[in-house]
UniProtKB/TrEMBL annotation:
Residues 4-120 form the Response regulatory domain. InterPro entries: AAA+_ATPase (IPR003593), AAA_lid_NorR (IPR058031), CheY-like_superfamily (IPR011006), Homeodomain-like_sf (IPR009057), HTH_Fis (IPR002197), P-loop_NTPase (IPR027417), Sig_transdc_resp-reg_receiver (IPR001789), Sigma_54_int (IPR002078). It holds the Pfam family AAA_lid_14. This is Sigma-54 dependent transcriptional regulator. Keywords: ATP-binding, Nucleotide-binding, Phosphoprotein, Transcription, Transcription regulation, Two-component regulatory system. Residues 142-370 form the Sigma-54 factor interaction domain. It comes from the Bacteria.
Length: 468
């Protein structure tokens, strides 16, 4: 494929020589002879690659300084350095600064073209990877301003740098993998690989190969050699739904965690690994141990530190912020214009129980964004799936119904107060003090009011603690 390549060299003959080689291959070659021309050329149009001489006579900035300027571009432009005999050391330190490779003068055309192709290909892969990561949800954060969410973040911060194994527990879709990713990002292994294996989705035989690899003799149908443990070397391996690991694999894993090495499947190769293992589960592992389905020794090896992610129904306060964050991420990923969420929609989202937790909320938000009528107006609750929209407090739906108009004032006021306070108590996760502050009542007066309205016994089903 033809690329736009910038050659920076004070020696015009060398520039012409390189340009000739590149143009013969169909590339476009631009030339600059000093730092001013080079930086201007980069600003004018982002080249696919810069070939940069280490030593530039009569230039304000030398090759290394230009490299630093170019590498600050976002995304960074790949650079191949050219070095003469006396400048190899500088070329090597240029690689440390981020240059892809260097070619030494005099060079052969083949060598030049090989390095150029490789540098462009490596850069393409890097950018594709970045784009995929961005599309997969961008920077990971544990969103939420409830005390529960703050507590999860504090635990992540404490445990991440220690290197300890962590068992992350919580209901399906509550954010366990997100927590694992944040632990990896906050650790000394952050630049190493982050590998996730879901133990519940693969048959036992396949899972064993996936984890421990194979030398290829027993599994003729697979070409894979390295297992996830090898791929995670120097980084973090997450074993998702670890309770689903078959018993023989549990024993093998327990041995591996003790010895930090294992024999590759189907062969005698001993593989030594340096991997931090994080495990997640939605099940109660103590109950699994009692039922003979989980090995106790493995539980203790994995559960050096335990971290529980609370379900969404225990932290309803986080729902508006999470919904807005998910809306932005879904909009980024799908290319749809970002929107805001209407009051009625927000109240319905907060009133719903979310058995599938944040993942289910994300799916509903995606649907909202796709189905919302065009225009910039806030998204209304009628776009929600029925089971969610019926959780919108009727106080926010009266504009459609008008049933309140059939009632005398005293009863209408009571219905209104009941619905309004119910919605507010739900919104604040059953926390009476915070609800009272928001609605502008004394805590004790709110208690009395709730009691008189028959709300003493509790917030709607699935809500947090009863309002007493
Ligand atoms: N606190 C949070 N802040 C932002 N996004 C979150 C949060 N918790 C979960 N998510 C998002 O919700 C989705 C599900 O989260 P995740 O995969 O971490 O859950 P899980 O508990 O590992 O799920 P499962 O056990 O079903 O695999 C992901 O898209 C994730 O980005």
């Amino acid at each position: 494929m033809a690329h736009d390549i910038l050659i920076v060299d004070d020696e015009r003959d060398i520039c012409t020589l390189i340009a000739g080689i590149l143009e013969d291959e169909g590339h476009t070659a631009r030339r600059a002879h000093n730092s001013t021309e080079a930086i201007e050329a980069v600003r004018q149009r982002r080249p696919a690659l810069v070939i940069l001489d280490v030593w530039l006579q009569g230039s304000e900035l030398d090759g290394l300084q230009i490299l630093e300027v170019i590498r600050r571009e976002d995304p960074p432009i790949p650079v191949v350095m050219i070095s003469g005999h006396g400048t190899i050391d500088t070329a090597v330190s240029a690689i440390k600064t981020g240059a892809y490779d260097f070619i030494e003068k005099p060079f052969k055309a083949d060598r030049l073209l090989l390095v150029v192709d490789r540098a462009i290909e490596a850069d393409k892969l890097k950018r594709e990877n970045l784009a995929l990561r961005r599309r997969a949800g961008g920077e990971v954060t544990f969103v939420g301003s409830s005390s529960d969410a703050a507590n999860v973040r504090a635990q992540i911060e404490r445990v991440a740098p220690t290197g300890s194994r962590v068992l992350v527990t919580g209901a399906s879709g509550s954010g366990k993998e997100t927590v694992a990713r944040l632990i990896h990002q906050g650790s000394k292994r952050a630049d190493g690989p982050f590998v996730v294996v879901n133990c519940s989705t693969l048959p036992a035989e396949r899972l064993e190969i996936e984890l421990f690899g194979t030398d290829g003799e027993t599994a003729a149908d697979t070409l894979r050699v390295s297992g996830a443990f090898e791929m995670a070397h120097g980084g973090t391996l997450v074993l998702k739904e670890v309770a689903d690991l078959p018993l023989p694999l549990q024993s093998r894993l327990a041995r591996l965690l003790q010895e930090q090495s294992y024999a590759r499947d189907g062969g005698k190769t001993k593989v030594e690994i340096d991997v931090r293992v994080l495990a997640t589960t939605a099940r109660d592992l103590q109950a699994e141990i009692a039922a003979g389905r989980f090995r106790e020794e493995l539980f203790h090896r994995l559960n050096v530190v335990g971290l529980r992610v609370p379900p969404l129904s225990e932290r309803r306060e986080d729902i508006p912020e999470l919904a807005q964050d998910l809306l932005k991420r879904v909009a980024d990923a799908t290319g749809l214009p970002p929107r805001t969420i209407g009051e009625d929609t927000q109240a319905a989202l907060q009133g719903h129980d979310w058995p599938g937790n944040v993942r289910q909320l994300r799916n509903v938000i995606e649907r909202l964004l796709i189905l919302a009528p065009p225009g910039g107006a806030p998204i209304r609750a009628d776009v929600l799936p029925n089971d969610v929209s019926e959780d919108a407090p009727s106080v926010l739906r009266w504009e459609k119904g008008g049933e309140i108009m059939q009632l005398p004032l005293r009863e209408a006021r009571e219905v209104f107060e009941r619905e309004y306070l119910l919605a507010q108590v739900t919104r604040f996760g059953g926390n009476i003090s915070r609800t009272a502050t928001f609605v502008g009542m004394e805590r004790s007066a709110l208690h009395r009011k709730l009691k008189s309205l028959g709300l003493h016994g509790g917030v709607p089903e699935g809500g947090a603690e009863p309002p007493v």
